[in-house]
Amino acid sequence: MPPPLFFLIVVATLSCHSPWSRYGHVQAFLSPHPRSRGTPEFRAVERRTPDASPLSLSAHTLSTSTSGGPTGTFFTEEKMEVEVGGKILAFETGKIGRSADGSVTVRQGETVVYASACAENKPQELDFTPLRIDYFERFSAAGMTSGSYTKRDGRASDREILVARLIDRPLRPMLTEAWTCETQVLSWVFSYDGVHNSEPMAICAASAAVVLSSIPLETPVAGVQVGRVDGRLVVNPTKQEMANSTLNLMVAGTEEGILMIEGAAEFLPEEVLLDALREGHAAIADICRALREWGAKVGKPKRLGDLCLAPPELKPLLQERYAKAIDAALKSGNRNAYSASLHGIEDSIVASLGVDSGLPDGEFLARDLKVEFKKLVKQRMALMVAAGRGRADGRGPSEVRPISIEMGVLPTPHGSVLFTRGETQALVTVTLGNKGMSQRTESLDGSDSKRFYLQYSFPPSSVGEVGRVGAPGRREIGHGNLAERALLPVIPSEEDFPYALRVESMIMESCGSSSMASACGGSLALMDCGVPLKRHIAGVAMGLLLDEAVDEPIVLTDILGLEDAFGTMDFKICGDAEGVTTFQLDIKCNGLTFPTLEKALRQAKEGRLHILKIMEEACPAPRAEMRGNVMRISQVKINPSFIGKLIGPQGRQIRAIIDQFSLSELDVSDQGVVSVCSFSTESNQAAAKFIEDMYKDEVKASNTVEFKGPMPEVGTVFRDVEIKGIQSFGVFVEILPGLQGLVHVSELNNKRVVSVEALYKSGDRVDVKLLGINEKGQLRLSRKAILEEEGAAGDIKKGGGPARAPARGGEGGGSGGSGGGEGGGRGGGRPPRAKSMPPDVPESEEKAAVRAP
């Protein structure tokens, strides 16, 4: 055995059995040299002991350990921990996914996220970084199995696509544009505890995988979630805390600035949002600092030789020859005009200076020419606005484009609007339906449904192009989710408006801010439909011109597509006059400072108020009455214990009501809410009144005051209590005001009961005994226990009519034989008389109601 391997085994064995391995102040670990892929060298790394002071937000620990695998191989594990929001975020590499260029496992609580980073060996002739990021949630992580036929995790869900975009947006700007090797970052959730959110962990894991790989990254990136619970800002809150939070903010950045913002709130003031961003960035800086130190210790050498850097003489050459032509193109008019002009200039540059041109000056790669051309357009656009010459369409930095609103533009949709802002146009429609129209989702948190959702479509014709049409792409899913979050706070509750709502936004023309046009159009279309919104929601996209040739950053309101493509920032903000409801920030620089963010938020509010004023003039209030083709839904509340009786055997009762009143559907929830659906208001009212009259006792029972007194003792007998509900499995009785319990069919009689409905009806009265109370406070009652204790079969009911006198031989059995049924007789005497049954039970059913076992 070679000496190094032998020494490795000895050290690992001593580390496992030495008492200092747990309590020692300094422990020896094995770790590779930061720049070596060969034989590891041995170094001592200080490790924090259990009695050391607790970690601060800026503190982190680094450690290395070596362990034996199942086949005798060894893993060199590198670990790092950092405290975030009072909880430990643990990073680990060297054990899982060792073939990847970089791989990291991140753990918080019992949630585990894994990420890998790989890149092709050769650069491509591209003027952008070919980066692909995917995120997957394995159902096995939560101890679940996919509901699909094959039981295999299928294509990416909308949530997985949205999280992948969260990872992509802060990571992409930190990969220098000179890196053109195809790069892929993959993330999986391997374990999910239902407590710790995987989204910020996935951002950190992906960043750590790239930091440790050979892929050049300008600086580490990290992400955290910020919530606001009871007015207090919480970093990386638990799922339970987020359920009570008025803010859901995902923020990512570097040690120096903010790179990405995504979130939603309930009319949050801009000042509070800035405070949340500062709180989140403080935690981000700590994580990034720890990742930078960890990468220097265990990361691989970066592939700087594969960077495609443009020759330094190219920039001044382009500026000298083409600056004036670019200035003229930027002021040439509408989108089609300046797009055609700029594309013409770019083609001319490649044709005259490219290596394939065959001309004397043709010494530059087409890729370098395109990259430097984009930089020059960005610079000339910033200088043009800074000099006061206006933007490409002539507006000033804080002006909003002209807005046109046409309500009810389509005849048959339930609600529609054509919203046009400059050269961006959205045709938005609304469809209302019953509960069955809700959108069903499946995630690690289980199955769920949404009664309100917005779907966004961006056909290639909206930008005058030919392209693929079909299933929505990542961008469409992201834009639809953003506009949906903007409108969600003003959607009425299901109790106030018992409809499912589907909003569709079709982009007919696009020149920037199409998602914000969808949010504005969605608000207007909902009001055109008659949805009782309390207020309008408007959105505006903010841009930024940032160049070394300009002294101060220039914030732009309501950006054009040109300003989105060549600008530095795309900051979308939605809300009303009181505050914001959703926000999304993407940038193309190394981070934004808080003064710039504050200026953008302040300028966005001014633009939002301007748009709201125009929207309120076009549609001051919701439509008073919904269109005739909208399904009418009325709701009736009944006691949940009577749901079975409303449905009837094999659904006969509910089908009869549907047929009698020509209803479209009759839906009953587990809480006893009956939704009556039809296209006739008169039919709805008649059916609702029929159900109320049929179950008025149950409706009253469902509205009784909740029982608040002390629970009765087990063994207590309650005499002459009223039956409140009938089910095939038993009856519900009210033993005290507001306190009900179940008498199971097996506890109704000392003989087998075949049909509960044949023996009892609502309002009958019986004697019961309390047998037990479970952990949920549910009562277990019995009538059979009283009969057995008293040695009698007893009356079938009390209070629903006069109880009959006992049959000869006494109540319940006689002097021989089987001892009768209900009422009994001597020696299994004659069967009970028909009058012992409830009045509505035919005599032919009496014998079948109670049978001896």
From TrEMBL:
Extent of the signal sequence: 1-16
A Gene Ontology term for the protein's cellular component: mitochondrion
Sequence ranges of Low complexity compositional bias: 53-71
GO BP terms in the entry: mitochondrial mRNA catabolic process; mitochondrial RNA 3'-end processing
Cell compartment(s), UniProt: Plastid, Chloroplast
Molecular functions (GO terms): 3'-5'-RNA exonuclease activity; polyribonucleotide nucleotidyltransferase activity; RNA binding
Top-level enzyme category: transferase
Residue spans of biased composition, Gly residues class: 809-830
Xref: InterPro entries: ExoRNase_PH_dom1, ExoRNase_PH_dom2, ExoRNase_PH_dom2_sf, KH_dom, KH_dom_type_1, KH_dom_type_1_sf, NA-bd_OB-fold, PNPase
Primary localization: plastid
Documented EC number(s): 2.7.7.8
UniProt-listed SUPFAM superfamilies: Eukaryotic type KH-domain (KH-domain type I) (SSF54791), Nucleic acid-binding proteins (SSF50249), Polynucleotide phosphorylase/guanosine pentaphosphate synthase (PNPase/GPSI), domain 3 (SSF46915), Ribonuclease PH domain 2-like (SSF55666), Ribosomal protein S5 domain 2-like (SSF54211)
Keyword Ribonucleoprotein: no
Domain of life according to the entry: Eukaryota
Keywords, alphabetical: Nucleotidyltransferase, RNA-binding, Signal, Transferase
Region annotation (Disordered) ranges: 35-71, 793-853
Domain S1 motif: 715-784
Basic and acidic residues bias locations: 38-50, 844-853
Family statement: Belongs to the polyribonucleotide nucleotidyltransferase family.
Protein name in the entry: polyribonucleotide nucleotidyltransferase
